[in-house]
Design a protein that fits this description.
Distance between the termini: 37 Å
Structural class: alpha/beta
Shape: globular
Strand order of the largest sheet: 3-2-1-4-5-6-7-8
Helix content: 40-55%
Order of helices and strands: EHEHHEEHEHEEHEHHHHH
Mean pLDDT: 94
Strand content: 5-15%
Number of strands: 8
């Protein structure tokens, strides 16, 4: 299958690695050519890490995997793809611009997979002339390691599209968990409240980030604390998602903690910038 991917960042690269590993032809489009080398490095390091911990399993050849991937700044290379997986930032105007470009080049039967954690799939569908072929696929980071994906149905998403997506995800060993369309869906509507309040606890000097996360890992058995999770997602992305939730629900429980906005202003984005609530080398 030929798969187009929009965005060569951490999420887009993870999606590309997952689908390339299963033999699909990948075409990645990003507006910034300088991201391509970083994407190749992300994939190379991810494959090496996977091989290191995959005892008794066949090792993945990262060179062969990368040979399946083409990078470009031109949307026209997507003219023959069967599905597009869009991974741009959680800003409606940016996503709208992407789908306007896709509509000019993609073939009629192409299905759009919207990798979003907050934005309405029905709204994304309204930017296209194929709302029945638009469906949400909220992949979780790191995509190559995850076994499930939150799948969101837009108001006009067809049964044919749902069935096709189930087959696509089954092919790459990902279980779809299907939910309906409301901003934040299930995962972010709940998890971002936790991360936001954890940030408030640090902001109010109740506890250090280390102790906040330790409570959730050691007392509740979570694999990661809420602040480690925020660093992994990206503090800027967490803020964008909370803004979307607040804009849609007008509920003060979704107001962004001031400490999070201050961190974004200071470019403390988390893992991708080398520092967030914790430091990374």
């Amino acid at each position: 299958m030929k798969i187009g991917i929009i965005g060569a960042g951490v999420m887009g690269s993870g999606v590309a690695e997952r689908f390339s590993k299963y033999g699909h032809e990948i075409k990645i489009v990003d507006i910034n050519e300088s991201t391509f080398d970083n994407s190749r490095t992300i994939i190379k390091n991810s494959v090496r890490m996977t091989n290191m911990f995959s005892k008794g399993q066949e090792k993945v050849d990262y060179k062969a995997l990368l040979d399946n991937i083409t990078y470009s700044t031109e949307y026209v290379i997507l003219s023959d793809v069967d599905i597009v997986i869009e991974n741009v930032v959680e800003k409606v105007d940016v996503k709208k611009g992407v789908y306007e470009k896709l509509e000019k080049v993609c073939k009629e039967e192409c299905i759009y997979l919207v990798n979003t954690s907050c934005i309405s799939i029905t709204k994304i569908g309204s930017f296209t002339n194929r709302a029945d072929r638009v469906i949400g696929t909220h992949f979780m980071n790191p995509v190559p390691m995850k076994k499930a994906c939150e799948v969101i149905l837009g108001h006009y998403t067809s049964e044919k599209t749902i069935d096709h997506l189930k087959e696509v995800l089954k092919n790459v060993d990902i279980k779809p968990i299907i939910v309906n369309d409301y901003p934040g869906f299930v995962s972010n509507r709940i998890s971002h409240l936790l991360m936001n309040e954890a940030a408030c606890v640090v902001q109010d000097n109740v506890a250090t980030p280390e102790n906040v996360d330790a409570i959730f890992k050691l007392c509740f058995g979570h694999k990661m604390g809420p602040l480690e999770t925020a660093d992994l997602i990206g503090i800027d992305t967490v803020v964008d998602s909370l803004d979307v939730l607040y804009e849609n629900y007008h509920d003060p429980k979704f107001r962004v903690a001031p400490i999070l906005r201050k961190m974004v202003d200071a470019k403390l984005f988390g893992r991708k910038s080398g520092e967030g609530f914790f430091k990374y080398k």
